[in-house]
Amino acid sequence: MRILLAEDDNMIGSAVREALLQDGYVVDWLRDGPRADAALAAGDYDLVLLDLGLPGKEGLDILRGLRARRKTLPVIIITARDAVESRVAGLDAGADDYLVKPFDLDELAARIRSALRRSAGRTGPGLQLGGVALDLARRSVQRDGAPVTLSAREYAIVEALALRPGAILSRAQLEERMYGWGEEIESNAVEVHIHAIRRKLGAEFIRNVRGVGYYIPRPDGAA
Description:
Layout: E1 2-6, H1 10-22, E2 26-30, H2 33-42, E3 47-50, H3 59-68, E4 75-79, H4 84-92, E5 97-100, H5 105-119, E6 126-129, E7 132-135, E8 140-143, E9 146-148, H6 152-162, H7 171-178, H8 189-201, E10 207-209, E11 213-215
Parallel strand pairs: 1-2, 1-3, 3-4, 4-5
Antiparallel strand pairs: 6-7, 7-8, 8-9, 10-11
Helix pairs in contact: 2-3, 6-7, 6-8
């Protein structure tokens, strides 16, 4: 999962980014409004953590522009503005949640998981794909009831594909789920990780369409 963190406070931004990295998310952290707006226009994110008081462009204007472009990804506002009018304005502009600083990082993590579940049309934290079960809250995987250990990047690939069974994701799209800005991407990283995943979860768990990308078959057996 790739998250854009738009936060100009260095102490808060650093703490949130570190917590998200420990939870296995890929995080791009930007400290001003214009760069955050440009990143959202150009990038493919699963969720946005958006401060309202960003330098250069207000978070509320970024949110309105995002929704005007019909971008439906979840947005959680994180702000010190605790007035009811600010909450109403943020939610009416299209935010999925509103969290007032200072906040507990465990609560933020739970709100992120909840927003991602709603975005994917799910009510619970689990996914069942044949004999493979994912617990998205604990970021754990089982095969036929037995726990399976995946690396952070292996899990990122499995999660990205499992949330969209039947949908083909290209190598570039999977790389976006695995690496943040500034991280060096090895040319065959996706192939190496998928080979390891197949050894652990079954040779047919992830399938590929030559020259297009990879997918996990839908539970009903349709491609």
